[in-house]
Design a protein that fits this description.
Length: about 220
C-alpha cells in the first residue's frame, strides 16, 4: 500500500454499522451522530462495485468518518475514508435534495478509489488525472445504481474542452497543484465516443482483473 493512503484515528465518535454482501463490517462515524443515508448508500455502492469490478473488496472492514473542519472534501484513505461533514452527513430536515446527491456522489467517488487508485495505484503523480478522472466517471454508475430516479446519467459531457496537462511533478507543492478540476474532468472529456468509453473502462478493469489473479493471497 502506498503511504498516502494510511490513516489512524482515535476518537469517541458515535457510529452506525451494517455488513457488506461479503459479510464485512461497514461503519459510518460522526461526532454528533451519523445518519443512515450514507451507511445505506455506502454499502449499496460497495456491493455494486464488487460486482462491477469483479474483484471483492480486499480489506476486512470499511469505515467512513465525518471530520469537523476537514480541509479536503474527502480523502480515500484505504478502509477509513475521511470526509468533510457536509459531504457525508445528510439532514432530512435541513438539507436540500442537491445535498443528498452531493453526498451520494462523493461517497461513490471515494469508494471507487478503494479499487482504482488504492488496489491498483499509479506509478507517479503526473498521471493523477487518470486516477481522479476514472473515479469521477465511475461515481455516476454507483449513484445511478443506488437511486435510479435521480437520472444521474453516466457523467459524460460535463467537461468542456480541456487543455492537455502533463509535466514532471516532484515537489509536494507541485503535486498538490494538480488536484484541480482538469484532473477530475479529463477522463470524461476523453470519453467522447462510445468506443473510447469502452476502452477507458476496460483498461482499469483489466488491471484489476490481472491484480486479482496474481499470486499474492
Ligand atoms: Zn478522487
Amino acid at each position: 500500500m502506498v503511504t498516502y493512503l494510511a490513516c489512524f484515528i482515535v476518537c469517541d465518535f458515535q457510529y452506525v454499522e451494517t455488513n457488506t454482501k461479503a459479510v464485512k463490517p461497514f461503519r459510518v462515524y460522526a461526532h454528533a451522530g451519523p445518519d443512515q443515508l450514507s451507511l445505506a448508500l455506502g454499502v449499496d455502492v460497495l456491493n455494486y462495485f464488487e460486482e462491477y469490478f469483479k474483484v471483492e473488496y480486499p480489506l476486512p472492514k470499511q469505515d467512513m468518518i465525518a471530520i469537523p473542519d476537514f480541509i479536503s472534501g474527502a480523502m480515500e484513505h484505504w478502509g477509513l475514508i475521511t470526509y468533510r461533514e457536509t459531504n457525508l452527513l445528510y439532514d432530512d430536515l435541513g438539507s436540500s435534495s442537491y445535498n443528498k446527491q452531493r453526498v451520494a456522489a462523493v461517497v461513490a467517488h471515494e469508494l471507487a478509489h478503494m479499487w482504482f487508485g488504492n488496489l491498483v495505484t499509479l506509478e507517479w503523480w503526473d498521471d493523477l488525472w487518470l486516477n481522479e478522472g476514472f473515479a469521477s466517471y465511475i461515481e455516476y454508475k454507483g449513484v445511478a445504481n443506488y437511486e435510479k430516479d435521480w437520472d444521474m446519467g453516466d457523467g459524460l459531457g460535463r467537461a468542456a474542452h480541456l487543455p492537455p496537462k502533463r509535466a514532471a511533478r516532484n515537489h509536494p507543492d507541485e503535486i498538490t497543484e494538480i488536484f484541480d478540476t482538469i484532473s477530475y474532468s479529463k477522463v470524461e472529456e476523453r470519453m467522447e465516443t462510445e468506443r473510447l468509453t469502452k476502452l477507458w473502462v476496460f483498461a482499469p478493469k483489466r488491471e484489476l482483473f490481472e491484480w486479482s489473479h496474481r499470486d499474492h493471497k
